[in-house]
Amino acid sequence: MARARSPVVTGWFREDDDGFRLLGTRCTACTAVFFPREDDFCRNPACAGTELAEVALSPRGRVWSYSDGRYRPPAPYVSDPGREWEPYTLVAVELEAERMIVLGQAAPGVTVADLAVGMEVEVVPGVLDEDEDHVRTTWHWRPVPDNGRSGPVPGREREKRS
Question: Residues 76, 107, 8, 77: what is their CA dihedral angle, to the nearest 10 degrees?
Fold first, then answer.
């Protein structure tokens, strides 16, 4: 039996025939783009716009900063204390067209040793959590294959997780 897949946050990303994309909103008055999306009013202090349109964000960007999480964060972060803690890598990515920084986890298998400021990365589908009935999906950042590396791209071997 197939497990139900659902996004961790509805409306923040989509996966279709055009690929996987983060979704933001653009103010129709000043053209400012927001992620996470804004659906009520323009967050630009110089704009009084209230009409926002959904927009797919650039699928690639450049590493602006990165770090690793080697400890379980304190409350209010929710995690299963019975499960062994697995370190993860956080990546802040600059999307040039949108002129914004988007934070996310690196794809499984990608560590801080695989990243460098300025490196090109791409957004890919990811899994945040799963159990026997559900898969909660999110996004991950993964180095683009043509970053001058030889050999496999970190995280590529695990991208097709259930």
Answer: 0
The Cβ-side half-sphere exposure at 8, using a 13 Å CA radius, reads 14
Residue 68's DSSP bridge partners are: 89
Q: Are 42 and 27 in contact (CB under 8 A)?
A: yes
Q: Please check whether residue 142 is in contact with residue 126, taking contact to mean a CB–CB distance below 8 angstroms.
A: no
Encode pLDDT of 4-63 as tens digits.
888 989 999 998 888 899 999 999 999 999 999 999 999 999 999 999 999 999 999 999
Give the whole-angstrom CA distance, residue 155 versus residue 139.
13
Strands 13-16 and 4-7 come out as unpaired
Displacement of CA 161 from its chain's centroid (Å): 16
d(CA 144, CA 148): 9
Residues in the chain: 162
Contact (CB, 8 A) for 24 and 32: no
CB atoms near residue 103 (< 10 Å): 13
pLDDT digits (tens, 9 = 90+) for 65-111: 999 988 887 776 777 788 888 888 999 999 999 999 999 999 999 99
